[in-house]
Design goal:
This protein is of the alpha+beta class and 792 residues long. The protein contains 29 helices and 26 strands. A five-stranded mixed β-barrel has the order 5-9-10-12-11. It has a five-stranded parallel sheet with strand order 16-19-22-15-23. The radius of gyration is 35 Å and the shape is elongated. One of its GO terms (biological process) is DNA replication initiation.
Length: 792
């Protein structure tokens, strides 16, 4: 018995083979004759023993991927009736964790039109005491049929609404149809029988158990067809949400009958002639008019899911699978999401010319039943009770800023300030939208430029793992359109469609670009618009549009000659155009210097990580990435403001940076007004970490310190070249700052802030204070260590 070149017996699970279908040419509720004709039994032997002697199975010639039939024997009817009673008993009596009737409460919400989806958990069926294992096996192996069984049980159990509901189009239509049926004698005519699907305003899903490891795509084989499976992967492509016809309704021009046709496939053959008794008696071929308002449509979306890189065997390429989402499951996934799906693995036969060429081969797809995201977006993060307590405890910790930063990639030695900057990149600042529509970005862009072997790529990979939404790409492996957007021909519709690149996929997330210096100049210019305006504008192949790319860019690059050449100026070494440099909030120069003590420490750290496969003791337990995400999601809900009293302080700090750069012969950075916005962004991110509604002066000082420390390795070289030792340099810094502010008294906190920006420690400051106090240059307060210059 063949269907579109497929042996149907092989495609059905044993239970599906217990059913037979009506011999109508299309899955319609209107039969061609009121008396069904007997169907001859199949001559070919069935692959499995049949429990009922008088049973047959046939399929309509119209492409249906729903392998279902109408039971021929009384025994099978009885079995499904028994199963419906078991389903009703389970839905009525299953108690949730608090002892409440879980599914009755869900049904009440459905009756009150608060929700449409009824998700039946397989774990609840496992835990239900009165349920036999045989029923559970049947539900798992013949899920498509048992969704109907549960839906029929729900039809009988659905309670009356407890709230006053406004009549919508669907209710008015149902009432009208019910009245018409009553007037015409209770609907005795089989042609006017209304399918149950058109009455339902809810959807039933059976969710697979979350215990155990999900399948990879290549582990789902033909033996799983018709069964409930759970797979994991990354979504690579999503179609638009379109209406899919579930029940087609026609009205006859002659007799006025309403004819229903149930559609169970992607394509169907519409009815043309009225099959009602009245038209047959009158020998009139009634013309059927499709009634789109009366028909029932479902939301439908198609997606492609691809194997994760860690699941692909050596030398193989990742496999993909088509997934169909219906109803309330649509718009749950986007390209780039790593998800776990449970669904029914089904075949879909080829139609038309492709069916002739395909022969016995059928395509397969997954009918999705549930979607679980591995990493939720910050906005979708719902903190549980224990997580809220943990975050509250962390927020009260005075040293949380350092702990969070050191919890990022604890296996990588040092780079404390770099990790602090990357933490602020994860937190970000609030986006500002002005009244006239102008937007000021809140995302922080960072470029790590350094010698080979300073763990730049490892830091990038770790940040992508921590971030809920991240895309990793390399300079040579990315073209301009690969980063922004490309115009491609859709393989299904043959239309020109826009395919988002890495920066568009990383919208509201982080895009890490490694080997940034190896990119072609023409490709690198495509990033300029994304980094400031946060959009991608396209005018190609008749498509003119603007895509959102609200992403934080984290780039890693090597200096112009592979390693930083101290004989050349910083501008020659960095070798990036000023237009691009000014867009980065922080350009971090990491130089690999030979230092006996540091090298020894680092070697011990690396050896410990190799042997123990974990970082050495940090003095505290590093926070898990999930805790980091929870803390950051809570921090991102705040929108700190800059108080008026800090405005002058920030303005003077910015102007002093500009003055320093103007005096220098070889400036280390390129300071523009964007630098001022960078100070505000970093300060706001620091205030978010403290869960504060206002930016404090300490936040601004830390932002300035990070900007200064990003070039720290260069400043130490400048000092060596100028011949100044640390103590003399600290004295000159304090003297210059006091002269600039025209003050004789300098507080210890201000002095420490000034010298820490230049990369000096508190111990060096105290040594300087003692040495110059002995020379009567200044006086030191014995308790507070405040400085008073002696007027010479």
């Amino acid at each position: 018995m063949k269907f579109e070149g497929l042996d149907c017996n092989l495609l059905l699970s044993p239970l599906s083979r217990q059913k037979s279908s009506c011999n109508t040419p299309s899955p319609s509720f209107c039969r061609q004759s009121p008396t069904p004709r007997p169907i001859p039994a199949p001559t070919s032997p069935s692959p499995s023993p049949s429990p009922s002697p008088s049973r047959s199975l046939t399929y309509s010639h119209t492409h249906t991927h729903l392998l279902r039939g109408v039971d021929g024997g009384d025994m099978n009817d009885l079995n499904f009736k028994q199963d419906k009673e078991i389903a009703k008993d389970f839905l009525t009596n299953f108690a949730g964790p608090n002892g409440e009737a879980k599914y009755i409460n869900i049904l009440q919400d459905v009756a009150n039109r608060k929700t449409k989806a009824i998700q039946i958990e397989l774990e609840d069926l496992i835990d239900y005491k009165d349920l036999d294992e045989e029923f559970l096996r049947r539900v798992t192996e013949n899920t498509r049929r048992y969704i109907d069984v549960f839906a029929n049980a729900i039809d009988e159990l659905l309670p009356e609404p407890t709230e006053v509901l406004l009549d919508d189009d669907h209710d008015i239509l149902m009432t009208q149809r019910a009245e018409e049926t009553t007037e015409n004698g209770g609907g005795s005519d089989p042609q006017k029988k209304m399918p149950p699907e058109i009455r339902r305003f809810y959807e039933v899903y059976i969710r697979a158990s979350s215990k155990g490891r999900p399948f990879t795509i290549r582990e789902v084989k033909a033996s799983y067809i018709g069964q409930l499976v759970r797979i994991s992967g990354i979504v690579t492509r999503c179609s638009d949400v379109k209406p899919l016809m579930q029940v087609a309704v026609y009205t006859c021009e002659e007799c006025g009958f309403e004819i229903y046709q149930e559609v169970t496939a992607r394509v169907y053959m519409p009815l043309f002639d009225c099959p009602s008794e009245q038209c047959k008696v009158n020998h009139a071929k009634g013309n059927l008019i499709p009634q789109l308002r009366a028909s029932k449509f479902l939301k439908f979306q198609e997606a492609k899911i691809q194997e994760l890189a860690e699941h692909v065997p050596k030398g193989h390429i990742p496999r993909t699978m088509t997934v169909h989402f219906r109803g309330e499951l649509t718009r749950k996934v986007a390209p780039g999401d790593i998800v776990e799906l449970s669904g029914i693995f089904l075949p879909i036969p080829y139609t038309g010319f492709r069916a002739m060429r395909a022969g016995l081969i059928a395509d397969t797809y997954l009918e999705a039943m549930s979607v679980t995201h591995f990493k939720k977006k910050y906005e979708e993060y719902e903190l549980r009770g224990d997580e809220e307590e943990q975050i509250a405890c962390l927020a009260e910790d005075g040293d949380i800023y350092n702990k969070l930063a050191r919890s990022l990639a604890p296996e990588i030695f040092g780079h404390e300030d770099v990790k602090k900057a990357l933490l602020l990149l994860l937190v970000g600042a609030p986006h500002r939208k002005l009244k006239d529509g102008m937007k000021i970005r809140g995302d922080i862009h960072i470029c790590l430029m350094g010698d080979p072997g300073v763990a730049k790529s490892q830091l990038l990979k770790h940040i992508i793992n921590v971030a809920p939404r991240g895309v990793y790409t390399t300079g040579k492996g990315s073209s301009g359109v690969g980063l922004t957007a490309a115009v491609q021909k859709d393989p299904v519709t043959n239309e020109m469609v826009l395919e988002g690149g890495a920066l568009v996929l990383a919208d509201m997330g982080i895009c890490a670009i490694d080997e940034f210096d190896k990119m072609d100049e023409s490709d690198r210019t495509s990033i300029h618009e994304v980094m400031e305006q946060q959009t991608v504008s396209i005018a190609k192949a008749g498509i003119t549009t603007s895509l959102n790319a609200r992403t934080a860019v984290l780039a890693a690059a090597n200096p112009a000659w592979g390693r930083y050449d101290l004989r050349r100026t910083p501008a020659e070494n960095i070798n990036l155009p000023p237009a691009l440099l000014s867009r980065f909030d922080l350009l971090w120069l990491i130089l690999d210097r030979a230092d006996m003590d540091t090298d020894l420490e680092m070697a011990r750290h690396v050896l410990h990580v190799h042997q123990a496969k974990e970082s050495p003791d940090l003095g505290f337990t590093p926070l898990e990435p999930s805790v980091l995400r929870a803390y950051i999601s809570a921090a991102r809900k705040l929108s700190p403001a800059v108080p008026r009293e800090l405005e002058e302080y920030i303005a003077s700090a910015y102007s002093s940076i500009r003055q320093e750069e103007a005096k220098s012969n070889t400036p280390h950075s390129y300071t523009t007004v964007r630098t001022l916005l960078s100070i505000l962004r970093i300060s706001a991110a620091l205030a978010r970490l403290r869960f504060s509604k206002y930016v404090a002066q300490s936040d601004v000082d830390e932002a300035l310190r990070l900007m200064q420390m990003s070039k720290f390795s260069l400043y130490s070289d400048d000092r060596q070249k100028s011949g100044l030792d640390a103590i003399s340099d600290i004295y000159s810094i304090l003297r210059d700052e006091a002269a600039r502010t025209n003050r004789m008294d300098v507080s210890y906190a201000h002095a420490l802030n000034w010298i820490s920006r230049k990369g000096y420690s508190e111990a060096q400051l105290k040594e300087c204070l003692e040495e110059y106090a002995a020379l009567n240059v200044w006086q030191i307060h014995p308790n507070t260590f405040d400085i008073r210059f002696i007027d010479a």
